[in-house]
Design goal:
By secondary structure, the chain is an all-alpha fold. The protein has two domains: 60 residues; 118 residues, no CATH class. The chain contains six helices and two strands, in the order H-H-H-E-E-H-H-H. The protein has a two-stranded antiparallel sheet. Strand 1 and strand 2 form a beta hairpin. The longest helix is centred in the last third of the chain and has 43 residues. The protein is rod-shaped. 12% of the residues are buried. The chain binds zinc ion. The site of zinc ion has 8 residues, from helix 4.
């Protein structure tokens, strides 16, 4: 819609390129500011581009993800301590393994060898990560980002489930060695 008396600035190739590149990634307000055009002008142009066959929409894919300062991964499972759940679980696992190593050191060498040999066998099974999403040319930026975001969230949940299983296995192993260590003293 153009106001009476205002001259409509023609859309340049660069304007269109910017719009196609950033619609769905950058908030609508920022797009309007960058292009120095009104909301309705931008909406109208998006409709035109859509009619021309471009996959475009102004809706932006939001995410509750926060980048974890420890691992640098975007996470939706941030703890009160400011770290993501996979990081917290990894720390928990490392603590158990540290304790296990200390207990192993207390065992007589021949017994220690038995536990060190069976370590590989007790490794827990891992759930595979979901396959990465297939991005196609006919998807809008919103659709692409939503697919990627949902995939990252699903991967994080799998990672946590795997770590929980590993922790459980490590805990059991620690307890077994603890028992042995007590018997041998
Ligand atoms: Zn982390």
């Amino acid at each position: 819609m153009t106001r009476k008396g205002t001259k409509q600035t023609p859309w340049t190739t660069a304007d269109d390129r910017y719009l196609l590149e950033n619609a769905g990634k950058v908030p609508r307000r920022e797009i309007c500011l960058h292009l120095k055009r009104s909301r309705s002008a931008v909406y109208a142009r998006v409709r035109d581009l859509k009619r021309q066959g471009h996959a475009i929409e102004l809706r932006v894919c939001t995410s509750a993800e926060v980048v974890c300062p420890a691992c640098g991964n975007p996470s939706t499972l941030m703890g009160k301590d400011g770290f993501c759940e996979p990081c917290r679980r990894r720390a928990q696992l490392a603590k158990i393994e540290e304790r296990t190593a200390a207990l192993l050191a207390q065992l007589p060498p021949e017994q220690r060898a038995i536990y060190e040999d069976t370590e590989a066998e007790t490794e827990s099974s891992r759930e595979p990560y979901p396959p990465s999403p297939t991005i196609t040319a006919c998807m809008t930026n919103y659709q692409r980002q939503k697919l990627r975001r949902d995939w990252r969230m699903a991967c994080e949940r799998v990672e946590v489930a795997n770590l929980k299983r590993e922790i459980k296995a490590a805990q059991k192993r620690k307890e077994r060695i603890e028992k042995k260590a007590k018997q041998s003293t």
